[in-house]
Amino acid sequence: WRLLRALGLDPEVLHLNEGHAAFAMLERARSWMADHKQPFEVALAATRAGNVFTTHTAIDAGFDRFAPELVAKYLTHYAEQMLGIGINDLLALGRRDGSPSEPFNMAYLAMRGSGAINGVSRLHGQVSRHLFQPLFPRWPEAEVPVRHVTNGVHVPTWESVESDAFWVAACGHNRWVGEVDHLEPLLLKVTDLQLWQLRAQSTRGMIDFTRKRLAHQREMEGASAAEVEEAGRIFDPDILTLGFARRFATYKRPNLLLHDRGRLLRILTNRERPVQLIIAGKAHPQDLAGQAMIHEWNDFIRHTEARCHVVFLSDYDKLLTQNLVRGVDLWVNTPRRPWEASGTSGMKVLVNGGLNLSELDGWWAEGYCPEVGWAIGDGHEHGDDPAWDAVEADALYTVLEQQVIPAFYERGEQGVPKQWVAKMRESLARLTPQYSASRTVREYTENHYIPAAAAYCDRAAEGGKKAATLCDWLHQLGRHWDNLRFGEAHVQTEQSRHQFHVPVYLDDLSPEAVAVELYADADGAPFRQPMTRGQALAGSVGGYLYTGEVAASRPATDYTPRIVPSYPGVNVPLEARQILWQK
């Protein structure tokens, strides 16, 4: 943030990708303090509206945490001298309950300093609401303020030369500029032969790259001249080619295909319908389990008949990924649901006509349908269960044996596999535009950046006048909330309608500071209906009668009155977490 200000830039929106970037939010507030001569509390209220936080983590252990002693050592001076607050006030921004021993959680800091939060797929949004629910006690998990914007890839980076020519012919040169919704009907007009020719051209280039890369790899490993020469002939562009390339980590289950080595070997070496597999990846230097999985694959390749059907390409990098996604027929992805927040590797094959076989996790949980590829899993979470891993390994082999391989090898006129190219067409048309960066950036812009910029400008205007008023409202909530209470509710059911009459006592809090609602759980979004404030209750202090009416399609006992904060332009419960339920 300091660099941006030094360059004379003062963005209205700050987008934090993961919690480890959250200190930029503090520096933005400090900079605003200096410019407007306001305290940190007002500066945070003003700038928070213009901060967007995207979490990419699917497990709580993935959040960066620091010991409070470490934070105090390095940030006490910054807190006291630059922000004008005590170190305990700073620590509280990164804690759940304020316990002195609780670590400082960077994701919590980012959340408390942002006006909008999102996960990176629809499923990850659900997972993130569960992860952050402890910050919103007594709020239903469905109302934890985390939305989602599913990731997309920069399509031109990953498309092959052949694919680019194909897309130009079908959709024109500027297909990835602006809206992409118009692309689907254009692609649905492409013929089977055109699709199959695209596949053949792209695969040849990928096979050539694989041969050269493997030959160089063997040479560097000290292999014999015969082994190096063999690498130059490996693989056949007419054989079904599977790709699997990613970071080797246990939750990604990169060795799921090895669960039954004999069955995998039979799939690969079938004389009538052979399969070839390209694997690439790296493990973190300290991830011994990930390294062991790489050794397991290399052991399988060295000591079985698979040597001519499987290669493991080392030095996994962008160049390698680009060449693989441009030519493989099928991309395999086997994460343990729901630990793959989004996953983008499978998106990269789409533009080149590649298909996906994946666990129903991340983006594939929302992108999959039978017309565009294949899936394993039942759409539920099973944890780190070896028995379930065995079930899914069996399902993976079965899908390959009974669906994928027949679809590729059963040919019609001109040697074109009708089932395969039908999936290619639907995948290209439906998924490529949807999981492109063009759609993602537009979604961020329309749903996050523009609203955040407007909210920031509104709060920051006139030296932060509205931000200061917001802080006063938050203080009022804090002073009076514990004294709020419900009276005895009365419910009448007449003519298929439930009528609720609920006395509410607000202490000295203005009734405009809260909303009284009827709430009921639902299969999708929860049911919320505002209640109407009626006359003041005689002889009471801050007492009012609230009424509400709902259809009697559900029992009256399904509905619970509640009180929540209400203030124009405030994201509740993100910025005001109080809630009171009628008992």
Keywords:
six-stranded parallel β-sheet; 3 domains; 21 strands; Rossmann fold; 20 helices; elongated; Immunoglobulin-like; 583 residues; 43% helix
User: Main β-sheet: number of strands, strand sense, barrel status?
Assistant: 6 strands, parallel
Instruction: Based on Cα principal axes, name the global outline.
Output: elongated
Count the beta strands.
21
Which regions are unreliable across 5 or more consecutive residues at pLDDT < 50?
none
Amount of beta strand: 15-25%
* Residues in helices, as a percent range: 40-55%
Global structural class: alpha/beta
CATH topology title of the largest domain: Rossmann fold
Radius of gyration: 29 Å
Q: How far is it from the N-terminal to the C-terminal residue, by CA?
A: 47 Å
Mean pLDDT: 95
Q: What is the CATH C-level name of the largest domain?
A: Alpha Beta
Number of domains: 3
- CATH superfamily placement of the largest domain: Glycogen Phosphorylase B
User: Helix tally?
Assistant: 20
Task: Walk across the major sheet and give the strand order.
Answer: 9-8-7-10-11-12
What is the subunit arrangement here? single chain
**So, CATH architecture of the largest domain?**
3-Layer(aba) Sandwich
